[in-house]
Amino acid sequence: MPEVKDRFHDFxxxxxxxxxxxxxxxxxxxxxxSLEYWLDDKYRVxxxxxxxxxxxxxxxxxxxxxxxxxxxxxxxxWNARRLNxxxxxxxxxxxxxxxxxxIGAVPLVGDMFDVAFKANRKNLxxxxxxxxxxxxTV
Length: 138
Fold this sequence. Notes:
The chain is mainly α. It is built from seven helices and two strands, in the order H-H-E-E-H-H-H-H-H. A two-stranded antiparallel ribbon has the order 1-2.
């Protein structure tokens, strides 16, 4: 019986040495989380649970604001590539950004849509879902 225990002990010890996500990947993920927070959740309307960020604020500037926030959101997709996120998930992320950009460009309606849709939060959820799916089960 001691042999079996030793084999499992070595197996779990070696699994602990190899993290599921490397330090570089953790840094990239923290960067994405930070951008998502600033773009979608930084501020709260007092007395409500409504949160918004710079995506909504910059979206108030006709044309240029939506282009700028779409560019920043595309940077999140570029970082997702560094995490080896599948092309399908990257395309879904770009779809979220495109929808946010197109509807966000409509005056007033687009600004309300920006508060509700939160493309960057959806993209962060897609990244986390794929990273969790790729984790080896032990």
